[in-house]
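#onboarding

Welcome to the new folks! Below is a worked example of what a typical request in this channel looks like: someone posts a single protein sequence, and someone else replies with the predicted structure as tokens. Don't worry about understanding the tokens yet, we'll cover that in week two.

Example request:
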Amino acid sequence: MNDEGLLTIKNVTKRFGPLVAVDNISLEIKKNEVVGLIGANGAGKTTFFNIITGHYPPTEGAVIYKGQDITRLSPAERVEMGIVRTFQLTATFNELSVLDNLRLSYFKSHRKSGLSNIIFSKMKNIDDDEIYEYLEKFNLSHLAHKKTGSISLGERRVLEIAMALIYNPQILMLDEPFAGLSEKEIDEVLEILYQNVGQRTIFIVEHKVSKIEGLVQDICVMVEGEMICAGECQTVLKSDIVRERYWKMDAKEMAKIKA
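Example response:
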């Protein structure tokens, strides 16, 4: 497998009855590339993510990872292969401590066990030195013994990313990681993401385009289930089709920008 096609999406369509949520999308993502995906609410971004991560099967098309067709594999099988995602709403265990959330992720990533096995095993033989290294790396040490439900949304978002990275994924998929965060919290999450640039592939859905412009190399734009443009970030954002269909600029506004 060459680095040009770590993840390849081939003519993927997803229908829910008469609704076409994802319309014949093809996309190639390279190893260690950072790619952004933008679009208005209802554009089909999360559905597209769900297809890549195995939460939805496509109606048509294929998902290829490292040259292997993974279209029908489960989310868990894809995680084991190195495709790990976060969600718009944080996916942490709020009744557990921050430390135990990381322990769970560490145990699962190393033992490939179901949650019930994790609980009944009482997570024996976990390398707490490595867990504490993650706490320090992500500035969570002072929260280690706090219940996750009692910490801020921004702190939970950082924890969720730490829980994903403890799997050492080849592709980290982030679904609106800045949702509901303050500017300070966004900057803290961005700092973590910048630390991972060049170490792994990152595919990020986000509404706050200005926050990811410096992070991503390429960007994709979805409108009503269709991928209308994809390529180098600034080239895409300045393209006529994106200005017209995503930014909703009329001819006069576009002419003024070009003048």
